[in-house]
């Protein structure tokens, strides 16, 4: 069972930045497409970004393009999500998820992943 652990959440002012990290202590993330989802209070979970393992292709939901960046550090066995120019509407619990295949599916943004982390809270507020 692939166990994922997120870190890096916190409280930040609008316009600020955070870096979220996802790792697994037992498995290499090199072989899995990894995505980040988020869930704001009272809202459904939303796919934010995905990165493929085979060629490093990246995908973003429209609302974060140009502000968020997803990246892999294979040596460190992490997948990071860099959050810049944060807005209050980015406030949510952010989840790291893994697919059973190496590439991001065309439907990467759908809540159809088998492996989920426990989530990390991001709060954007002045």
Walk me through what this model shows.
- The model has no long low-confidence stretch (mean pLDDT 95).
- By secondary structure, the protein is mostly beta strands.
- A hairpin with a 4-residue loop joins strand 7 and strand 8.
- The strands form 2 sheets. Strands 2, 4, 5, 6, 9, 10 and 11 form a 7-stranded mixed sheet that branches. It has a 4-stranded antiparallel sheet with strand order 1-3-8-7, with no helix packed on it.
- It is globular and about 40 Å long.
- Helices cover 0% and strands 42% of the residues.
Binned, the helix content reads under 10%
Would you identify the regions where 5 or more consecutive residues have pLDDT less than 50? Answer: none
Order of helices and strands: EEEEEEEEEEE
Taking the alpha carbons of the first and last residues, their distance comes to 40 Å
**% residues in beta strands:** 35-45%
Please provide the count of β strands: 11
**Rounded radius of gyration (Å):** 13 Å
Mean pLDDT: 95
Quick one: biggest sheet? 7 strands, mixed
Overall shape: it is: globular
Number of helices: 0
Structural class: mainly beta
């Amino acid at each position: 069972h692939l166990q994922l652990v997120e870190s890096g959440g916190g409280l930040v002012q609008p316009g600020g930045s955070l870096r979220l990290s996802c790792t697994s202590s037992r498995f290499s993330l090199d072989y899995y497409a990894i995505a980040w989802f988020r869930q704001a209070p009272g809202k459904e979970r939303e796919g934010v970004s995905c990165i493929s393992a085979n060629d490093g292709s990246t995908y973003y939901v429209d609302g974060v393009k140009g502000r968020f960046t997803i990246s892999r550090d294979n040596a460190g066995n992490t997948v990071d999500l860099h959050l810049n120019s944060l807005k209050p509407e980015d406030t949510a619990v952010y989840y790291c998820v893994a697919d059973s295949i190496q590439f991001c599916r065309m439907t990467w943004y759908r809540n159809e992943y088998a492996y989920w982390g426990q989530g990390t809270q991001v709060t954007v507020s002045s």
